[in-house]
Amino acid sequence: MWSQKGFGKGSITLADGRLFMTTKKGDLVLVRPNPMKYEELARVELLSENRTVPTIAEKRLYLRDRKDIYCLDIAGK
Question: Which residues touch 58 (CB under 8 Å, ≥6 apart)?
Answer without folding.
Answer: none
